[in-house]
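[09:14] KT: can someone run the structure on this one? pasting the chain below
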Amino acid sequence: MTTKHWYNGSCHCRTVRFRAHLDIHSGTSKCNCTFCWKQRNWNVGGLKLADFELLAGAEFLSTYGRKTEAFEISHKFCSKCGTQTHGDGYLEEMGGAFVSVRVAALDDLSVENLVCAPITYCDGRGDNWWNPPEDIRHL
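[09:31] RB: done, structure tokens below
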């Protein structure tokens, strides 16, 4: 049984607003790649494009991305306040095109639901994404 709900999200200044259809109890992820580690990135990833709707602020989104032979990811952030809200990309192992949402950008996700959500740890630093890193204490 799915427990997907539409959640509203935004950046700090509320210029960028979105909604995402997701099941927080299906899991979240944290990665140890240098980008995610420095940003304290905590995501709900693997959303289909139809499960994400940008409501406002497209013209204020800036992008930082990375592309390799194996994958493509673009991290989106508000150019006014700097808050990262979501990202999108392409990874064949995830079914192709996907959206990933920062849990900190979800406005109506309760703390109770957040702390109960399972976390998958990914070894992005070692390009071993499907396995956890040796140490996760810092993530």
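[09:33] KT: thanks! Residues 5-119 form a domain with the Metal Binding Protein, Guanine Nucleotide Exchange Factor; Chain A fold (CATH 2.170.150.70).
[09:34] RB: yep, looked fine to me
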